[in-house]
Design a protein that fits this description.
Largest sheet: 2 strands, parallel
Helix content: 40-55%
Shape: elongated
Radius of gyration: 20 Å
Structural class: mainly alpha
Strand content: 5-15%
Strand order of the largest sheet: 1-2
Order of helices and strands: HHHHHEHEH
C-alpha cells in the first residue's frame, strides 16, 4: 500500500493511523483486490461477486454504524491475540466544558455515539474550558 507520505508498506503491517491515510487509489482498489484474492478463478461467476459484495457491505461503517464498527474491530483484536496489532482504535470522544448542557448527551445519543462519548473538561470561574486540562485529555487519547 502506498501511504500519503509516499512510503509503501504491506497492508497488514499498517497502523490504524496509516490505514486511515492510505492513498485514495489504493483504497479504491482494495475491494476488487480482496475479491480477486478470495476468488482468483471467478471471472465468469458474477453470482460470487454479488455474494462478496453483500458480505462486504454488511460490514461497512454505513451499515454497522460507527460504534458497532469499533466493537467489531475490538472483537477482531481480541480474537487474534497472536497478531501484533499496531494500535487499538479507541472509541470516539466529544470534549465539552464540564458545565455542558444536557442536550450535548442527547445529541450524541441521537447520533449513535452514546452519552458516554461526552467528556467534560475542567473550567475556570468564568466557565471557560481550561486549555491545560483539554490538552492533557487530548494527549491521553493519542
Amino acid at each position: 500500500m502506498k501511504l500519503c507520505t509516499g512510503e509503501s508498506k504491506k497492508l497488514l503491517s499498517l497502523s490504524a493511523w496509516e490505514l486511515l491515510n492510505i492513498n485514495n487509489d489504493d483504497t479504491m482498489e482494495l475491494y476488487d483486490r480482496g475479491f480477486q484474492t478470495l476468488y482468483p478463478n471467478s471471472a465468469d461467476k458474477p453470482e460470487l461477486y454479488k455474494i462478496y459484495q453483500d458480505g462486504v457491505a454488511a460490514l461497512s461503517i454505513g451499515k454497522l454504524g460507527i460504534l458497532d464498527m469499533y466493537d467489531w474491530l475490538h472483537e477482531i483484536h481480541e480474537a487474534h491475540p497472536e497478531k501484533e496489532w499496531k494500535t487499538r482504535i479507541p472509541r470516539p470522544k466529544v470534549f465539552a466544558s464540564a458545565t455542558f448542557h444536557y442536550s450535548i448527551k442527547k445529541s450524541l445519543s441521537i447520533l449513535g455515539l452514546g452519552e458516554k462519548a461526552a467528556e467534560g473538561v475542567t473550567v475556570d470561574l468564568d466557565s471557560r474550558i481550561s486549555i491545560v486540562a483539554l490538552t492533557k485529555k487530548l494527549n491521553y487519547c493519542l
